[in-house]
């Protein structure tokens, strides 16, 4: 319902006069509309609507300040020494303006980075990886450390997760990684797959995979250096959409 405007009240008063209505009737109608306007326009605030879906790429925080960007909302950017080891936030900014930004550990990898622009971007170096527009990339560490994008559930519920991990590098061994979605750091019930640009699948998809999470539970999207135990040319893209369905 639209709030009555001052213009409406003025017109109503005019109509009342034109119809030669008794003054009290005209005034009564005008007063009712004025009261309606006060009631409606006086209620300018409303309860915040809870968000029930998340997108890793569009919500990537490009700020260079770790205090404000990591964690950022439901997302944290970090790494683990092994598959289900402790999560460490990656607090060393990665900046390649205007193309990409992200977070790594102090030695540079593992790292998570993001194409900040709506055009494709080739990374830096002699053999750069290729990032589609707004892509999120994870790169594992030299000794098998995992790059981890962590989602922390804001409320109890059933969370549906869809997306894919995909190769970003075709140089030499190409992207050769093991990829995971792990709830609460437990391997049981996890999604696992492999990306192998030259020797296997160039991507691995997960569709409508459901996880029961309590408030504060974690869902970790992880990339390791794969079966060849070599981290070179291992940048792996991630599309991840999360929807709370119950
Ligand atoms: Ca590898
Ligand atoms: Ca590789």
> How many distinct folded domains?
2
* Count, helices: 3
CATH-defined fold name of the largest domain = Jelly Rolls
Using the coordinates above, name the CATH class of the largest domain: Mainly Beta
Query: Shape from CA axes?
Result: globular
> Which stretches are poorly predicted, pLDDT < 50 over at least 5 residues?
1-6, 12-17
Question: How are the SSEs ordered, and which strands pair?
Answer:
Blueprint: H1 6-18, H2 23-41, E1 53-55, H3 66-69, E2 75-80, E3 88-89, E4 92-96, E5 100-104, E6 111-115, E7 121-122, E8 130-131, E9 136-139, E10 146-152, E11 157-167, E12 176-183, E13 191-196, E14 203-213, E15 218-224, E16 236-244
Antiparallel strand pairs: 1-16, 2-3, 2-10, 4-5, 5-6, 6-9, 7-8, 9-16, 10-15, 11-14, 11-16, 12-13, 12-15
Helix pairs in contact: 1-2
Bound molecules: calcium ion (2 copies).
Task: Write up what this structure looks like.
The structure is a single chain. The protein is mainly β and 246 residues long. The protein folds into two domains: 6-41, no CATH class; 54-244, Jelly Rolls, CATH 2.60.120.340. The chain has three helices and 16 strands. Strands 1, 4, 5, 6, 9, 11, 14 and 16 form an eight-stranded antiparallel beta sheet that branches. The two termini are 31 Å apart. The relative contact order is 0.16. Bound molecules: calcium ion (CA) (2 copies). One calcium ion (CA) binds next to strand 12.
List keywords for this structure.
globular; 246 residues; binds calcium ion; disordered N terminus; Jelly Rolls
